[in-house]
Amino acid sequence: MTLLFCSTTDRSDRWLSELDARLPGLEVRVWPEMGDPADIEMALVWKPPHGLLATLPNLKLIVSLGAGVESLLLDPTLPEVPLVRMVSEGLTVDMAGYVALQVLRWHRLLDEYKALQQAGRWEPLDPCPASEVKVGILGMGELGMASAKTLLSMDYRVLGWSRTPKTLPGVESFSGPDGLAAMLGQCNMLVCLLPLTAETRGLLNRKLFAALPKGAVVVNAARGGHLVEEDLLEALESGHIAGASLDVFAEEPLPAGHPFWTHPKVHVTPHVAAVTHPSRSAAVVAEAITAFREGRPLPNLVDRSQGY
Ligand code: NDP
After folding, report:
1. What is the pLDDT of residue 120?
2. Which parts of the sequence belong to the D-isomer specific 2-hydroxyacid dehydrogenase NAD-binding domain (predicted)?
3. Ligand 1 atom nearest to 144, measured from its CA
4. What does the alpha-carbon distance between residue 63 and residue 85 come to, in Å, rounded to a whole number?
5. ipTM above 0.95, yes or no
6. Residue 301 Cα to ligand 1 middle (Å)
7. 196 lines ligand 1 (CB under 6 A)
8. Which of 65, 169, 229, 235 could be bridged to 46 by S-S, CB 3.0 to 4.6 A?
C-alpha cells in the first residue's frame, strides 16, 4: 500500500523517518511528487489543495495531521472514504498546558505585575483564590476534557459545554443552546475548544459576549472561524470583556496592521497552542494505518454528518 504525504507546514523528512521506524517497508510519496495516482491508497494530510484527493482513484483512507478537519470537509470533492483525525497525548497535553497558562496569566494578574515591574514598584495585588474563578470550556472533547482536568487540579471551578451531556467529577456540565445560555452568565473566563462546524462558526460573537459577566476573559484556541473579530474588539473597547488570549485567527498569518497585534488587552500566539510533532504523533498515524490494513475499527474516525 502506498501513502501520500501532503502538507506545506509539516516536515516530510521527519514524518518519513518516524513512519519508517514504525511501518518498515511502507511506500510514502511526498506531494507534489505523486507518481502514478492510481498507486495511492492512503493519504496523510494537512490542508491539501482542494480537489487533490479526488484525483486518487484508489484512495481508501485519509488521515489528518490536525485534530480539526474543517478545511478537509470544506472540499466539495473530498472522496467518501474514512477520515481519521489527529488525537495524540502530546497534542492533548500541550493544549491543556496552553489553557492553564492563559487562565493563570489573567487570573494571577501577570500583565499588571509586568507594568509594576516596569515602574519599579513592589506592590502585591490581591486576586481572588482560584476556587472562586469559574472557567467555562466550550467543547468537552479530547482537548476540553484534558484542559478541564488540569484546571481542576489547580482548584479552578470548571463548567463545560458540549453537544451531548458529559459526566466528569467536579465539572458542571451543560449541553445544547439552553445549556450554553445557562453557563455563560457564570463564567469569569471562557475557553473555546470546539471544532469548527456549520453550528459553531461565529459562536464567539456580540450576543455571546453580552451574556458573559462584565470583566470576563475570552480564550480562543480552537479556530479563527469561531470568533467574530469586530465583535470582540467592540466588547474589549466597551470594557465588558477584560481581555482575550487568541491563538487562531480568521486569516492566518494574522495580517500586518490587524488591531489585535497592538491591542493592550489581547495576547496573540501564532496557532501554536498544540502542535502535531512527528515524534509524538507518528505512533497514532501508524496505528490508524495498521488498523486499516488489518480491517480493524479505525480510531478517531470523523463523523462527517456532524462535521467533526
Ligand atoms: P473533539 O471532537 O474531541 O471534541 C469536540 C467537542 O466539541 C465535543 O465535546 C463536542 O460535543 C463539542 N461540540 C461539537 N459541536 C458542538 C455544538 N454544536 N455544540 C456544543 N458542543 C459541540 O475535538 P478536540 O477536543 O480534539 O479538538 C477541538 C478543536 O480544537 C479542533 O477541532 C481544532 O479546531 C482545535 N485545535 C486547535 C489547536 C491549536 O493549536 N490551536 C490544536 C488542536 C486542535 P460532544 O462531546 O457532545 O460530541
Report:
1. 98
2. 103-273
3. 25
4. 6
5. yes
6. 13
7. yes
8. 65
- What is the mean pLDDT for each group of 10 consecutive residues in the chain (308 residues)? 95 96 96 97 97 98 98 98 98 98 98 98 98 98 98 98 97 97 98 98 98 98 98 98 98 98 98 96 97 97 97
147 Cβ contact list (under 8 Å, min separation 6): 95, 96, 99, 100, 137, 191, 193
Ligand 1 atom with the shortest distance to the CA of 199: 18
Q: Which of 271, 280, 293, 304 is catalytic?
A: 271
C-alpha span between 247 and 269 (Å, rounded)? 5
Residue 293 is predicted with a pLDDT of 95
Q: Are strands 61-64 and 2-7 parallel, antiparallel or unpaired?
A: unpaired
- The reported pTM is 0.97
Give the distance (Å) from ligand 1 centre to CA of residue 88. 14
**CA 140 – ligand 1 centroid, Å:** 7
